[in-house]
Structures are given as structure tokens and as C-alpha cells.
Amino acid sequence: xxxxxxxxxxxxxxxxxxxxxxxxxxxxxxxxxxxxxxxxxxxxxxxxxxxxxxxxxxxxxxxxxxxxxxxxxxxxxxxxxxxxxxxxxxxxxxxxxxxxxxxxxxxxxxxxxxxxxxxxxxxxxxxxxxxxxxxxxxxxxxxxxxxxxxxxxxxxxxxxxxxxxxxxxxxxxxxxxxxxxxxxxxxxxxxxxxxxxxxxxxxxxxxxxxxxxxxxxxxxxxxxxxxxxxxxxxxxxxxxxxxxxxxxxxxxxxxxxxxxxxxxxxxxxxxxxxxxxxxxxxxxxxxxxx
Length: 290
Description:
Helices cover 26% and strands 31% of the residues. The chain is an alpha+beta fold.
């Protein structure tokens, strides 16, 4: 997605290396780069995370507020995604370039979370047809170094896991009305259950092979990509083909299998990290590595 200048000879060098299962940075085709995640980094939010994947870096903040539920789902809460591509991350993000990419990422996140198996939205409901919690997930892309979709999805899951929703009390008022009381203690919260929250896995087709976690240079060499939303159990919550090239129908089942396997591995590493961070003392600096 980021603009990187490569000559034809450089592209051929990358492509031929991938065919031999040897990428420029020494990884094999199914290896991820080092991922660093930290949660609870923004004090004026209900949950937050910061992530670095290779040279990609982004910040996610989550805020919750009272709102009205969707008439089609009166007992459920709502989750909205907002993505901002900083022009400092890449010159191509200025103007329409950043707006189009932001809308695209928001659409994909909404799609993979728009089902009851990802997040139990009933836990965000308060008074049917009247009140619910509205969760706003704001993503700020600070630096772009390839594989942005996967990085965003991991950071979003980490931020949602870190999000505490106030424990409110609903009491009966006069004339059949109901009143909502917020807790006095800011630590009186319940955390969003993210055990089934998906992550995105992008499988990029380069030559006759496919790779995961493509760098910015490798993205310029790929024909097309398959983006999958994968849960901890390997269930696919959404799938989308990206890029202007075509995919061989015979290679798609293999790419899907790779995406499910990589997705499960990402969940195992991320859940282990989040569990460790949750048990840390407040005076210990929180930093995690996958």
C-alpha cells in the first residue's frame, strides 16, 4: 500500500527468491516479521493498544458511550470503526489516497466483526430498543511498511481486549420508566470478551507461490492477495480478494488453508501476550512480543 520505488531487476530478484522460499529478509514464505504490541497506552480512552510490525506502526484507541441500538437488533450494542491514515506515514496518504484506504480498512473491519460469532453484542445492550453501549474503535496509522490490514486487525483485537465497559445499574423509575446509574468507581468495569474476535491474514500471490506478511517491496511484486478474517478456532468470518491480478482457482484452497493455520498461530501468540499483560503489576512497564 505504501509507495516504494523498485526497478524491474529488483522485482525479479524478489520474485525469484520467493520461488526458492528465501525472502529478502531471510524469512520463509510463511513466516511473519517481529510483532511488538503494548496495551493501555492512552490514558483518556477505555482501551488502547500500540503495535509495530516490521516498519509499520499504528495506534488504536477505544471509547464507549451510551447510544440507541439498531432497530433491527434492539438488544445489542454497536461497534463502529474509524481509520485515519497520517500523511506522515506515507506521501500517498495525502488527500484522496488516505481517504480511500481508510474507508477500505474500515469496511473490512466492519465486515469481519459484523456477526454474532466475533463479539457478543448482547453484552453491550442495556435497555432493549432504548439504550446500549456504542463502541468507537479509532485507528491511527503512524507508519506504513507493508501488510497493513493484518497489523490493524491485531492491534484492534488487543485494544478491544483492553477495553473496560462501566458496570451500570438499571433501576425502575416512575411511570414505568427505567433509569441508568453509572458507577462512582472508574475501575468498576467489565471487559469485552474477545475470545472469538478475528484477526486478518493476508496471503499474497507472488509468481507461482504465496507469502504471508508481505513487506512493502513484496507487495509491489504480488499479482493479487486473499484477505481472510480468521478466529482462534480457525473459522473464517470473511474473505476478500485484493489487487488487480487474478488467482488460479486451484491455488485458492491452499491459500485458504495457509490463512487458517497462520491465523490460529497469531491468536495463540497474541492471547498469551494479552493474558500476561493483564496480570502485570501497574508499576511494571508493559511491552509484549510475538
